[in-house]
Input
Amino acid sequence: MAQGCLLRAAEAADVPVILGFIRELAIFEREPDAVKMTEAQLQDALFGTKPRAEALLAETEDGPVGFAIWFESFNTWTGRPSLYLEDIYVRPAVRKQGIGRKIFAHLAKLAVARDYQRFEWSVLDWNEPAIKFYVGLGAEAQSDWTKYRLSGDALAAAASH
Output
């Protein structure tokens, strides 16, 4: 399946490719105009003096076909860090070839090697193929939690109190 796929840590020269994948993901997630990040911001986030996230690329003989970006979070109940997968994307033309499974296995091994408590991510509730894939991995939906977000004017208002 994913035998012809190589996973490798992203390098600074990969920033334009990764940003392209982020834009493709935004289109897939029905938010084509949502990506505001620039190459300079992504460069700083991944390779600046204080990196905020890590990334990998999935490549075949035809070039890059997918990516993942993750960061370390922290759980106060366990006192241990976790791996939070911010984004994963595999181009539609190469899906169902084991590339996503290979990326998840790589990240799970990384989480175990770093002694992380958990490996977590979010999925849009309409993305049935992804949900089926995650359940197939043995992942459990956290239906007892609801995700909230402050942004834009609401964030500014909250900060002013």
